[in-house]
Amino acid sequence: MAMFFLFSLILVMDITVSGWRFGFDGLSMNYYMMNCPFAEGIIKDTVNRALLSDPTLAAGLIRMHFHDCFIEGCDGSVLLDSTKDNKAEKDSPANLSLRGYEIIDQAKEELEKQCPGVVSCADILAMAARDAVFFAGGPVYDIPKGRKDGRRSKIEDTINLPPPTLNSSELIRMFGKHGFTAQEMVALSGGHTLGVARCSSFKSRLSNFDTTNDVDPTLDRKFAKTLSKTCTAGDNAEQTFDSTRNSFDNDYYSALRRENGVLFSDQTLFASAATRGIVYGYAMNQAMFFLDFQQAMVKMGKKMAQILLHGTLHVTIFEVDRLHGDGGGGGGHFFRKMMENIEETVGFGKGTPKIYATIDLEKARVGRTRMIENEPNNPKWYESFHLYCAHMASNVIFTVKDDNPIGATLIGRAYVPVHELLEGEEVDRWVEILDKDKNPTSEGSKIHVKLQYFDVFRDCNWAHGIRSSKYPGVPYTFYAQRTGCRVSLYQDAHVPDKFIPKIPLSGGKNYEPHRCWEDVFDAIINAKHLIYITGWSVYTEIALIRDSRRQKSGGDVTLGELLKKKASEGIKVLMLVWDDRTSVGQLKKDGLMATHDEETEIYFQGTDVHCVLCPRNPDNGGSIIQDMQISTMFTHHQKIVVVDSDMPGGESQKRRIVSFVGGLDLCDGRYDTPFHSLFRTLDTAHHDDFHQPNFSGAAITKGGPREPWHDIHSRLEGPIAWDVLFNFEQRWKKQGGKNILLNLRELDDIIPPSPVMFPDDHETWNVQLFRSIDGGAAFGFPESPEEAARAGLVSGKDNIIDRSIQDAYINAIRRAKNFIYIENQYFLGSCFGWHCEDIKVEDIGALHLIPKELSLKIVSKIEAGERFTVYIVVPMWPEGIPESASVQAILDWQRRTMEMMYKDIIQALQAKGIEEDPRNYLTFFCLGNRETKKSGEYEPSEKPEPDSNYLKAQEARRFMIYVHTKMMIVDDEYIIVGSANINQRSMDGSRDSEIAMGAYQPYHLATSRTARGQIHGFRMALWYEHLGMLDNTFFHPETEECIMKVNQIADKYWDLYASENLEHDLPGHLLRYPIRIASEGDVTELPGTEFFPDTKARILGKGSISEAETLERERIENASLSQGVVKNC
Known about the structure:
Helices cover 30% and strands 18% of the residues. It has 28 helices and 33 strands. The strands form 6 sheets. The chain has an 18-stranded mixed sheet that branches. Strands 4, 5, 6, 8 and 9 form a 5-stranded antiparallel sheet that branches. A hairpin with a 2-residue loop joins strand 8 and strand 9. The protein is globular and about 100 Å long. Mean pLDDT is 88; it is low at 1-26, 325-349, 583-592 and 1111-1129.
């Protein structure tokens, strides 16, 4: 009963509190509705009275608001007076001409009479500027309120204001750093439709303009004479921006078309090809200008102060000097009373103070300390953080909270302005802790922090690739880089003979493919001491050998029988299979995700195989809600096999450790070849392994299409294989029960970790192991943050985390020189950079940096005048019913991720005056197949339901190839392969457990010439599989010729895939992802392509729900399928 009360209370809290929730900016349209309902009316009346007396003040208010926002954000700092110790912004030469201060003072005086201490000066200025626009004839619009007044105002900060001498490219770049598009910059410039400019700001255009022209050539000659005449009255002489000085209209843009722009920064908007079309549009359409202007003004009021932090931030949180014993009053009477009720009803007893601190870059949480118990007044952490950042931010925010069983209570926040970090100097100080209203706490609390920022461009590895074999690997990780290794790369579970054409490598060699499930079969058969397996799913009834032309002795045995046979021979067979733990007992046997976990456990009961169902247990210390969320929603997702193996050639009796790591589970639905047949293997390789979870009721008896499966895996030999073994041992000791692991030191024939390749062997590899895992799943993690940091781990609020997979991706992207090729089951993240007003990105929680790092890499190359291309292959949709709410939400997140990246790229192109298709820099693909019917095919005994997606796909003879890979190739010299998707649950470290390897061949680096080692051969083999051909341009993926060639082929293949008619098999599988990129980077539908073929599933997705809700919906929806899936499998 007590537990029921707890969950009921949590539900009520979620319903009632969510209406009060604000983002970190604390802004709301109705902010003053309850505490000062007449605020807007008072401000409007004050502004109207002043402007009736002097209409020219409208321009002054708008300009003052802009100057306020552009420096430290819209915080009213421009209103502050200088003191004897500080020169304020107001006294900067750039601000001496500002007018309208008295209007703000009058409004503040009236408001203080009605509701003292409530309305900030920053909000008064923002609303006054809005009302001035409307008074002058401009659009009416609302703005969010709730800004807090700033206390810092320094004259030196006004250097960030855009001077009137900037050209279009410089303006785009300057505004772009604050998150604005070129269109938004031009719209905001339209504020010059009001007011005047002084001669001192434009006289440089009238004589000695440059070495070639005396007068600015973009200036109309007749208008130049007008300006010269104005300047005869001196530097303070005034010139109106357009012919309607006090009217807010689009005449400003008409003036630019006539080359009558007063300032150089005005006329450049028309002179530049990058912005000329926008000027034309606004000159012709005043309504469009009004709409864009008001949207840009709202955005400026919320976002202006943010600066791009791209690099690494080193932070140390030392201590808080003093806090109030009951949590600093942050909870309030209501919360304290509610907690007393919970304690009494549920029986928690009196709560113990558990103080922790977090680090945020705006809405992105980037770090958190451990909890300090029983130190409510002076908590001391002394924790250091190594934080990768690619965020727009105005402050580094330190939040201090008191943990409790159902969440946390805010104590206060401290702010360190980002601009203080940009020069790279160390900042070590006590920072004042403010309450939720940004007022000092009653105790005057301060937090001691140290910060130092290292810009990415100061990194010696930035864009230089792996320059030599001395590259030490990714820093700050649990596992060091290993040398002298051997790596075998696998595409799909099997590759038929003679499928891969001749692919030349350096040294006169040709690429030779490997066969994953054949090699796994051989490794298990030949094991003498141990077979260790982890998997999201392991199914005992599958056969690993299915190619009739490559049969092996004993190859017809199932995996389950093979493992039992080896265990009966005395070999230690240990298995950790994810336990699909759920509280719904009736569904437990089958498992909501149909992973066969219970079935597999029962199969091995009473045998010598030790099979342990392994739930994703949380680390100690989380709240009740967090613990339940982790154990029921997240998974063990590592896919590894570790065996002992004989030495090459079989000449020695010694044995060594070999490991397999990647995306392939040993379960049903995974066996496939590069042909990815839909119908033609239903009576052979897939008759007893029919997998189609995207249609309700799909079955072999109803026929194809089956869901083809594309995956990538690897075999690791040498010291790196022992790291994989150690990972298994850590996990077994944590969750395997009795310690029955082999003590390999007692086995004389096992060679300890040592190189398997000579240093001068040109086929040697350097390899590093990465993980996403925490102390809830791995034994032996250190308990203290200091020890964790030394071990390359991350300290969390209640756990110790290995988050090195994300670190590996970030480091590889930052090193990249020419191109990146990605295949992944998911591609969504960096939600802190999404351009959206309809959702709260902090509720999505997809905070990892990978998408943003990719777009910033492309942007940096565009700015440097260099080529760089990114190819990304994803599935058409996440596995499952494509119309379902969860799949549609994920597609919506994917679309938002893509859009963020394309907006970054287009903004960079515009700044350079380049008109080019952004798909020449970043392009997305999916895989699909389409087969004509051939005689002798399997004939099903039943038919799918009429008018179902299943029947439509069957009749059209097409279906997507499911991309399950988790791989990235950089410059053909470095590769990451593993189990981790590009989403938050895989990259977080405290959610799904994951494993990956990063590897390169030191003799095959992209230094003086392009890399031509095994990674190059593997990519070319993949491209041959996907495109059905090879082309000379494919040797240089970074070139415009290559990306245009691949896009052209993929566009053609999509047209064939989506067409009504089918005359031949699809010549290749690589399809354009069916989206269109609009001029400003918005991702839209291809004309006439709202839905994926044969479905009613929107390609762009629909709606956005929280990650937790999505996961729950996945479980509920998939429970009704004959073959359920988890979206991260």
